[in-house]
Amino acid sequence: MKKFRHEAQLIKKALEVGLAYAKKRGYETLPQSTAQPVKIEVVYRLLVQDKQITALPLDKEDGPNMKHKLIIWISKMLPADHEWLS
Predict the structure, then answer these.
(1) 37-86: pLDDT as tens digits
(2) pTM, 2 dp
(3) 7-81 in CATH: which number?
(4) Torsion, Cα of 21, 78, 75, 16 (10° steps)
(5) Where are the domains of the chain?
């Protein structure tokens, strides 16, 4: 699994974009008190359902792998020369 230097910033941005996408799709917003792992799973499952990302194999479907998938997804949306991708 490729490590990203700015993983914290990338996952924060992925959740921000993913939750905004969910809201546009008609889903209710999650409460601020919702834990980050829950948000990661919600966004991951929505993106898999909408075929925005490919699903992980069932035996590898856990928190760190879902988080990594979201980081890869958001990194592809950022410009190639973005500071977080260096």
Answers:
(1) 999 999 999 999 999 999 999 999 999 999 999 999 999 998 988 888 87
(2) 0.91
(3) 1.20.120.1930
(4) -30
(5) 7-81
Rounded-to-integer distance, Cα 6 and Cα 19, Å: 20
How far apart (Å, rounded) are the C-alpha atoms in residues 26 and 7? Answer: 28
Instruction: Give residues with Cβ within 8 angstroms of 10, minimum separation 6.
Output: 4, 71, 74, 75, 84
- Secondary structure in 3-state letters for the chain: CCCCCCHHHHHHHHHHHHHHHHHHCCCCCCCCCCCHHHHHHHHHHHHHHCCCCCCCCHHHCCHHHHHHHHHHHHHHHCCCCCHHHC
* Rounded Cα gap, residues 71 and 86, in angstroms: 14
Q: Which residues neighbour 57 within 8 Å (Cβ) at sequence distance 6 or greater?
A: none
Q: Measure the CA–CA gap between 56 and 60, rounded to whole angstroms.
A: 6
